């Protein structure tokens, strides 16, 4: 008696299976990578497009595949997942950066909203999920990343070929102009000098094989943003705001700038959303509340969540041990882990939604 199922049938059945995290079928978005059929036994290979893909949804994905194939006649189903970070290779005119697969910009319309705090903890959260991560401090005139990450496990250096070796902090590779100027010294440069520095940080740094390079941008819509958009492909931007209207107004301008240079907005984060008294639990909305979520709805972007005013987040940055590292089981660390998951899934969705025949499309491990 012939088997009820073959490779063509497997593909046909799985075209109706919806990925629980990406909310799209697993065949057209190339989550399904192939199968082996032996009689009524089926082995299915699937590509998990980011290390930040939630474990519960990985199990749900396997369950959906198994249920669909059993209903189609398979006796046993084995699902073999493998993480393959989805990314779009750089076009020839933006091939300055070698190694990192996806660049995630962290931006804000104005200073003082906690952009660097979000960038640092986002990078560390992606690394905790299992990704290889780098962090580029592109805030040339106010480089705070070296302070926020504390002493380096390995300081920056150079190779015999005069390539820059990034510093290593808490397991992630880091480059900042703050490593190369005296503490307290002001960086007073015109736009062309900033452009050349960014070129060097992108082309002359041995980043290695990274899943994500997180870029902490300066506030506003100036030379750094424009230079980066010209030099490298940016997978998307995470916008950081506080709830009050003066911050929201500037974020709107930042979003408009990214739209002009064709960089997608991955999502919005509302920082300093509220203060919760550690003694009595009372919530106080010092800077108003809900502005970030409202703006996300208005511009049609995902809302990644709220971050409270919390001395433990502030102390972690000042002490050089960010909260994701200092208190990995805390509510605040979990908030950053969730933001990292949402950002990584949005990057993956943007990549996988591209037509397969696109010459810029690839999914690599």
Keywords:
eight-stranded mixed sheet, disordered C terminus, Rossmann fold, GMP Synthetase, Chain A, domain 3, 2 domains, 365 residues
What is the CATH topology classification name of the largest domain? Rossmann fold
> Percent of residues in beta strands?
15-25%
At the first level of CATH, the class of the largest domain is: Alpha Beta
- Give the low-confidence spans: 358-365
Rg calc: 22 Å
Annotated CATH homologous superfamily of the largest domain: P-loop containing nucleotide triphosphate hydrolases
The major sheet is characterized as: 8 strands, mixed
Q: Span from first to last CA?
A: 40 Å
What structural class do you assign from the helix and strand content? alpha/beta
What percentage of residues falls in helices of 4 or more residues? 25-40%
Count of β-strands? 17
Rounded mean pLDDT is 88
CATH architecture of the largest domain: 3-Layer(aba) Sandwich
The helix tally amounts to 11
How many distinct folded domains? 2
H/E element sequence: HEEHEEEHEHEEEEHEHEHEEEHEHHHE
Please state how the strands of the largest beta sheet are arranged side by side: 9-10-6-11-5-12-13-16
Please tell me what the overall shape is: globular
